[in-house]
Design a protein that fits this description.
Helix content: under 10%
Largest sheet: 7 strands, mixed
Shape: elongated
Radius of gyration: 17 Å
Order of helices and strands: HEEEEEEEEEEEEEE
Low-confidence stretches: 1-21
Strand content: over 45%
Distance between the termini: 28 Å
Structural class: mainly beta
Number of strands: 14
Mean pLDDT: 84
Length: about 170
């Protein structure tokens, strides 16, 4: 239990949930849709690009800048998206001592779309702001991030993206 509180404290220090979620204009809902939504991850704090904005390929690693930024999961489906989730695990390595590796038991951010009998949003986004200012100098941080989303069918098709890695060393 103590370890879980410690994990929660570090996540609160390192990332804050993005308060607003972006929702697209509604589309005609296909209640029989059998295709899962597509999921993309975008980071606005990448040290890999000049402007800091990077669409992250599944399985790849993004080095974060010292200024902090955001990590956003976007789910898209032409026949409607019911919900999207941003998931994250965080670990910290200080002088070879690994702290808080573990599996996330709940999403960091969950966003429900406005789904009616006839319409649903074609895309939804969920994410976190990354605050690197409160992280311990001399340690290396690794964030495993992924998304989950469901289409707006009567029997939803749920998809999970592959994990991507965000790293930071203040």
């Amino acid at each position: 239990m103590r370890q879980l509180r410690s994990i929660a404290a570090i996540i609160v220090i390192a990332v804050m949930p993005v308060m607003s979620a972006c929702t697209s204009d509604p589309v005609s809902r296909d209640t029989n849709d059998t295709t899962p939504p597509t999921i993309t991850l975008t980071v606005t704090a990448s040290a890999n690009t000049a402007d800091g904005i990077e669409t992250v390929a599944p399985g790849s690693t993004v080095n974060l800048t010292g200024a902090g930024g955001s990590a956003l999961i976007k789910a898209e489906d032409d026949d409607g998206v019911a919900w999207v989730e941003f998931w994250m695990n965080q670990s910290k390595n200080c002088n070879g001592v690994l702290e808080n590796p573990g599996i996330s038991g709940a999403p960091t951010k969950h966003v429900d779309g406005t789904v009616s009998d006839t319409s649903a949003p074609s895309s939804l986004m969920a994410g976190v702001d990354i605050n690197t200012m409160n992280l311990t100098h001399g340690c290396t941080y690794k964030f495993e991030v992924w998304g989950k989303a469901a289409n707006a069918a009567t029997t939803p098709v749920i998809t999970t993206s592959s994990i991507a890695y965000l790293t930071y060393s203040p």
